[in-house]
Amino acid sequence: MKFMDEYRDPVAVKQIAEQIHRITTQHWVLMEICGGQTHAIVKFGIDELLPKSIELVHGPGCPVCVTPLEIIDKALLIAGRPEVIFCSFGDMLRVPGSDKDLFSVKAGGGDVRIVYSPMDALEIARKNPEREVVFFAVGFETTAPANAMAVYQAKKQGLSNFSILVSHVLVPPAMEAILSSKLNRVQGFLAAGHVCTVVGYKEYEPIARKYKVPIVVTGFEPLDILEGIYMCVRQLEQNRYEVENQYVRSVRKEGNTHAVRIVEDVFCVVPRKWRGFGEIPQSGLGLRKSYRLFDAEEKFALKDLQIQESTKCMSGLILQGVKKPHECQAFGGQCTPEHPLGATMVSSEGTCAAYYRYRRVVAHV
After folding, report:
1. Contacting residues for 219 by C-beta, under 8 A, at least 6 apart
2. What was the pLDDT predicted at 71?
3. pTM
4. How far apart, in whole angstroms, are the C-alpha atoms of residue 300 and residue 81?
5. Quick one: pLDDT band at residue 127, thresholds 50, 70, 90?
6. Per-residue pLDDT at 365 exceeds 50
């Protein structure tokens, strides 16, 4: 508790906010790439402490939110099969597919189980050799090492009844997609500290140079975020475009080399579809050929399934930082956490969920 209080100290928060006011002379648009940071910004009113000339927009920092509809529908098809035990983290169960969600499959008799680790799913496969056990492997670089280890162990132990439905995405290509878009307004980034804890931040340096944007690796507490904003604005005011590390207590430039090694052994970089973006080249992870036995899409012949995204939900524009939740006509009315139109409203890291929970605003009509 003392550790947390240290990074929420109101005196320190006030001091860094005052420093940001002192150095800001122009209008700047910054984007955080982390759903945890988004929730902290909205919950603690961090944006309201800033000069009016600093605008914070929210990026695709929620892995559940950027999972495309067709992956959700593939999960639903697999989970509905009688021979399957489908395992997932709890935040995926209420994400809507084309016509239902995983909770609906469970209510209809499907064996859908919430687990806290892919290793839990591996243990279920070990105890149920007559069943096919599938783990829904969703996430950024952060969760990739644990999922890679589960597959590695499944192969080592000969558990051919275990597989994963992969929807892993990589942050740097998404940042490039945002910066190269005609709709882009972002001038600086707060990079996700937990992602960089795993992979480091060397990959961000070419992006900073190419697009002339400062990128600051940032933590999740109020003081972390304000310091990250201060470092980013200071660079912009000084006409600098570098990668800096605010989150020094957890992040090293090279990341966690052991975690990176297991990921590279099991996964390879592939094109990946993102909700709201479409396909981004080299932006995801897929299983290497030597581990294809554990690919649920291949095992259940779902590689070719294509699903069109719904036009009812504007989460794509929200994930790109072009719109904010209260600018959607469905926000808080047709779309609520109990009856979500998209993942950004139901996910615990979703931008719409943050605004609904902490900053209820009547939708613009």
Report:
1. 7, 193, 225, 228, 246, 247, 249, 250
2. 95
3. 0.91
4. 10
5. very high
6. no
**For 142, phi and psi rounded to 5 degrees?**
-60, -45
> DSSP 3-state assignment of 50?
coil
Which residue is it, tokens 């989460």? 315
Q: Specify which residues 274 forms β-bridges with.
A: 278
For domain 1-311, the CATH superfamily is HypD, alpha/beta domain 2 (3.40.50.11740)
The DSSP call for residue 326 is G
Query: What is the C-alpha to C-alpha distance for residues 63 and 275, in angstroms, rounded to an integer?
Result: 10
Whether residue 363 is predicted with pLDDT greater than 80 in this model: the reply is no
Bridge partners (DSSP) of residue 30 are 56, 188
Number of H helices, E strands in the chain: 17, 11
- Rounded CA-CA distance 293/299 in Å is 7
Q: Do the strands 84-88 and 132-139 form a parallel or antiparallel pair, or are they unpaired?
A: parallel
Task: Kindly provide the residue ranges of all beta strands, DSSP E only, lying in the chain, ordered along the sequence.
Answer: 28-32, 54-58, 84-88, 111-114, 132-139, 162-169, 188-192, 215-218, 243-245, 267-274, 278-287
Q: Give me the residue spans of the domains in the chain.
A: 1-311, 315-358
Alpha helices in 180-221 (DSSP H): 193-199, 204-211
| Confidence class for position 317, pLDDT limits 50, 70, 90 | confident
Torsion of the alpha carbons at 168, 169, 171 and 173, rounded to the nearest 10:
150
Q: In the chain, pLDDT over 90 holds for what percent of residues?
A: 79
